[in-house]
Structure formats: C-alpha cells, structure tokens
Write a structure and sequence with these properties.
three-stranded mixed β-sheet
C-alpha cells in the first residue's frame, strides 16, 4: 500500500470554507450560538415533558423523542467542527468519519419517520378524536417510535456501507464541514452512477414516502378543521398542526434538495450551506417552534420552573 492510500485510510481532510478564511470566525460564532440554543431548547423540552404529568400524552412523547434526536443529531457534527475551527485543524480520523456518517444518516432518517408519526398522531387527534385514546395507546406509541429508530439505523448502515466501499485512490480531501454522503462520493475515482442509483432508491423511501404520508394526513386535517364551527376550535387546531408543518417544510425541503439529486449537480458552496441548515439550524428552531407556538408547553414550563424554584 502506498503512502497516499495509508494516509487516506487513517484520516480525511475537511476543507469546509478553508478557501475563504474570513468566513471562519462568523461560522464559529454561528455554530456556537446555534449549538447552545439547541442544547438549552431541547433539554428544556425534554425536562418539561418528563416532569409535567399533564404532558404525558402521545404528542409530547413523540416531541421528547424528537428533542433527544435533535440533540444527538447536532452533537455528532458540531463539536468537532468547532474544535477544527479553533485549532485550525481540518482533519478527522477514518474511524471518526465513519462514526459521524453513520450517526448523522441514522438520526436524519429517524427524524423523517418520526415526523411522519407525529403527523399521524395529529390526524387521529383532529379527525378521530373519539378513538384517539384507543388508537394512540401506550404500546402503539412505543412500537412506532422503536420502528422509526431501528429503520433509521438500518438505512444508515446500508447507505454508509455503499458510500465507504467506493474506491478513493488515495483521495482524502472532503470538500465539506463533516462526513456526508454527497461529499464522500465525490472522492471516488470510479463510476459512482450505480451507487448513486441505489442511494437514490433508499433516499426516496426515507424522504418521499414519509413526506407524502404527512401531506395526506394534513389534507384530511385541513378538511376536518374547516368543518369545525367554533372559530376558537379552528384556531387551536391550526395552531397545533401549523408548528409541525413548519418543522416538516424546513427539514424535508433542505434534505430533499441534498439527497434526491446527483452529487455532481449540487453546487459546492450551496450544498454546504443547505447541509448546515438541516443539520444545525433546524434542530435549533424545533424547540422554539414547538414551545413559543404551543400554549400547553408554555404553561407546563411555568409550572415546572415554579416547582423547581420552590423546592
């Protein structure tokens, strides 16, 4: 094995915006602020949903899982990115790159499925309220969440294996901030079209099927809400579902842009910015969207803070 192959087996070089040094500090500040808000917001949601008995419902059980997922999702990439910027070190070990790729893919796929589950929960709550307790029972909620997590990690193992088995011929410069499928495929010195076709198939399953189910669910929800005579009832229903739709639009829109087109057709810098958006900005916005637009969550937060203060 020659030196280049030995080097590429040990580590990768993450280029990021190394050709634009003036962007390093603004990027560091953006990452630090986003990550801080992500940790604080998601931990707060988890704490409130667990400690307040009134939030022990399927909707907030799913929201707790989403917060755990977002917290792990950003932690898989952001701390390493911050360290690289601080130390002006652009490398990541091969093992670290593999771990980062597997975790990022797994949690991203799990979030796609979990958002679909949350839309089904809102569909049952709005369209079949009398059957809600029966349909969304404790065991059903546990099973669909477990299915989301296991399917996400299964998809990740398949896509990671296909990506990492491509020959690189000593290439080790990843034109990205972290190890992601489109960026790693560009390192290959072989024809990637067969692999891209297989990855495209898995991406369609993970991205388009859940988003289609979400749109169908919200189509039925919109019909049901419009039949509600009470203006207050319509406002509450649209308010609860509206926050979920904002999250769905932000996450799926950017992920579909990155994964449902050939890596070669993706603009280099635009692809980096989009991946930062769905990998960092969206997990930061989720707690704000679900807490600021949710009256029950705000009241529960006040009750929990009051308890903690008096204790």
């Amino acid at each position: 094995m020659n030196w280049a192959n030995e080097s590429s087996a040990r580590e990768f070089i993450l280029l990021g915006f190394s050709d634009r040094p003036w962007l390093q500090m603004p990027l560091f500040v953006l990452l630090l602020i986003s990550y801080t808000f992500t940790i604080f917001g998601n931990v707060s949601i988890m704490m409130v949903c667990i400690l307040d008995p009134k939030l022990h419902t399927p909707m907030y059980f799913f929201l707790t899982n989403l917060s755990i997922l977002d917290l792990c999702y950003t932690t898989s990439t952001v701390p390493h990115m911050l360290t690289n910027i601080c130390l002006n070190k652009k490398t990541i070990s091969y093992g670290g790159c593999v771990a980062q790729l597997i975790i990022f893919l797994a949690l991203g796929a799990t979030e796609c499925l979990l958002l679909a589950v949350m839309s089904f929960d809102r569909y049952v709550a709005v369209c079949k309220p009398l059957h809600y307790v029966v349909i969304m029972n404790h065991w059903f909620c546990l099973k669909v969440v477990a299915f989301s997590w296991f399917t996400g990690f299964g998809n990740s193992v398949l896509q990671s294996s296909l990506t990492l088995n491509m020959p690189r011929c000593g290439r080790q410069e990843v034109d990205h901030f972290f190890c992601e499928v489109p960026a790693l495929l560009k390192l290959s010195c072989a024809d990637t079209k067969p692999i891209e076709s297989e990855l495209f198939f898995f991406s369609v399953l993970i991205l388009l099927i859940p988003v289609t189910l979400i749109l169908i669910s919200y189509g039925f929800i919109a019909q049901a809400v419009l039949r509600i005579r009470s203006a207050e009832g319509r406002r509450k229903a649209f308010g609860t579902c509206g926050s979920h739709m904002v999250v769905v639009t932000l996450f799926f829109g950017t992920a579909i842009y990155m994964y449902l087109q050939p890596p070669s057709s993706t603009s280099k810098d635009w692809g980096k910015m989009v991946s930062l958006f769905y990998g960092i900005i969206t997990p930061m916005l989720n707690p704000l969207i679900y807490s600021l637009r949710n009256k029950d969550m705000k009241e529960a937060f006040k009750r929990v803070m009051t308890k903690i203060f008096f204790l």
